[in-house]
Specification:
N-terminal domain of TfIIb, elongated, binds zinc ion
């Protein structure tokens, strides 16, 4: 599974500072970027980003309602 190399519009190479020279593509769950003006090359894992977003969303849905119920019970307690 590989996507074709595509230029990123407006991207500036961190090594030679040329604009519109960065190409990006994906292969085997890894995102690659390189520069056609110099020998800049880097690779970034794609899977980590997606997992982090999913965990945050699940935690929010579970915690918010439980906190509200706990506070209501305490306020209405007649003891004291
Ligand atoms: Zn470059």
């Amino acid at each position: 599974m590989a996507t074709p190399k595509r230029f990123i519009a407006g991207a500036i190479c961190p090594r030679c500072a040329e604009m519109d020279r960065i190409r990006a593509w994906e292969q085997n769950g890894v995102r690659y970027r390189d520069c056609v003006s110099c020998d800049f090359f880097e690779q970034l894992p794609i899977e980590d980003d997606g997992q982090a977003e999913l965990e945050t969303r699940v935690n929010r849905e579970h915690e918010a309602p439980q906190a509200d119920d706990f506070q209501t019970v305490k306020i209405l307690d007649p003891k004291g």
